[in-house]
Amino acid sequence: MELLLKFYTSRWALLFSLIVMVACGLGFSELQMRLGADIIDVLRGGYDADMVQERFLIYGEAGRALYARAALSLDVVYPLAYSTFFACLIVIGAVSSGARYLVIVPIVVALLDLGENVSIYLLLTNFPDITDAQIARASTLTVAKWWMVVLMLLVAFGQLFVRLTILAFGQLRR
Fold this sequence. Notes:
By secondary structure, the chain is mainly alpha-helical. The chain is built from 6 helices and no strands. The model has no long low-confidence stretch (mean pLDDT 93).
């Protein structure tokens, strides 16, 4: 764990992960434009069989194949990039040595996102022969991921806010 924490203190890891996040964001914009509708990963409230059916028909066969490839390529790189970026922010902003271990939050988010990607890939490649249970699993992972993303943002920016507040008040006392 110490080696991972040392990696997260690197400004290069922070910068590189930010660049990769931006590149992936551009890739997702292109993907959604080609699909003709939002990807289901972005549906924070989850989705049901009707929504999946509707979206997958809009995507068409070629779009579903494209989305499936992206789910196991672009959408694998993206969680690794954003989890690294936010883990770096948490470690850099940590106000105590114990607070650095909050990097577990972005790691959990990335794992949920990767699980969601596999579930969505299976939906895309097995459509129309998918079950309500498969849809429910993918939807649950999507909702859980988004709740954890909120937690990750609160932890990362909360740590930075506390760090900056401490620094500001430390400077005012001098």
